[in-house]
Amino acid sequence: MEKRSVPLKEPGQQVDWRESFQGWGLSWIGLLNNQKGEWWLLAQVVLICAHILPSWPPELLDAWSWPAWLHVSGLMLFVVGLGLALQGFLALGPSLSPLPDPKPNAALITSGVYGRCRHPLYRAVVICSVGVVLAKGSLLHLALFLLLVALLNGKARREEKRLCAVHPDYLIYRSNTPAILLRIPGLDWRKG
């Protein structure tokens, strides 16, 4: 892949939000051959949607009363995750892509929420998932959370390989900024 320098986004730069939903490169052929990481996206959507499944095993909740404060804490954490997702979405602007391969000519965002975390949208998904686990008290949702963490780790690493190829400054950014969650094994790496 040819290395090309793409400018960093300047804070306060005017953004046309229609650009956020264009140029993703989704196609049926890509879905068949995973050309731009479509399988990562598909698996992510399936795991996120599976969070609406009922708690399992139901006997666990019947035999042991799940504390109300954990339900409430889980719901609050879920709302915090949604807020963080909105923050990451707005900061990314036209560089937004659901695929791990960056959009052509997309700016590298390293300020704001991206100055504290390289993958704030993945962090938001992880936090929402923890919120669901706490709110439901379900072994099924705990398993979904663990699968989602593994999947987001792999998707983020593929994304970072592509970002290093198009943004030479990404290596410095990666070495100085936590990946998804600071100091959590599997969710914070600073090297390729």
Overview in brief:
The chain is an all-alpha fold and 192 residues long.
Question: Can you describe what's shown?
Answer:
- This protein has seven helices and no strands.
- The protein has 192 residues and is mostly helical.
- It has a domain at 26-51 and 69-176.
Task: Give the secondary structure arrangement, pairings included.
Blueprint: H1 28-33, H2 38-49, H3 58-63, H4 68-92, H5 120-136, H6 139-166, H7 170-176
Helix pairs in contact: 2-6, 4-5, 5-6
What labels would you give this structure?
disordered N terminus, mainly alpha, 192 residues
Q: Which outline best applies?
A: globular
- Sheet/helix structural class: mainly alpha
Contiguous low-pLDDT stretches (5 residues minimum) are 1-9
Q: What is the number of helical segments per DSSP (H or I, 4+ residues)?
A: 7
Query: Main beta sheet: strand number and arrangement?
Result: none
What share of residues is helical? 40-55%
Order of helices and strands: HHHHHHH
Report strand %. Answer: under 5%
Mean pLDDT over the residues? 86
Rounded to an integer in angstroms, the radius of gyration calculated over CA atoms is 18 Å
Distance between the termini: 17 Å
How many β strands by DSSP? Answer: 0
